[in-house]
Amino acid sequence: MRYEEIIDKYYPDDDDLRRLLIHHSRQVAQRCQLIAAGHPELNLDTEFLEEGAMLHDIGIRWCDAPGIYCHGTEPYIRHGAIGGELLRKEGLERLARVCERHTGTGLPGFEPQTLEEQVVCYADKFYSKSHPERERTVEQAAQSLEKFGHEGVEKFLRWAAMFE
Prior knowledge:
mainly alpha
């Protein structure tokens, strides 16, 4: 099943939430593709990067984040776990792990393992669904991670050195 079909399945209405999800996911996907093109030595799976970037936030609908059109009941921090559950039901284990491992620089026990997981996680930090018109700098993205602890900032900066 292609990512468009999954988005259509879980976000069937052409509403603000679907448009925001697609806009944000495309921003992340474009940055992933730029990273892959700039670093052929990493041998990144560009098709998987595209799919992972487009589906990494598939679980937001069920979260309580009205500022980004999400009117569910789950805490927003669970959107990755919810996305992982959805994609596992679709038989997409590898993509499920992208969902689960992209929050911050990875939650305890759910850190990005593969290079592709790391690239999607890294690229995501440059774009906020609360301010979809903005693109953060490396410094701004690093600062936004302080709430997760300095270890996450250090990990992000290591990724910046590898991917920029």
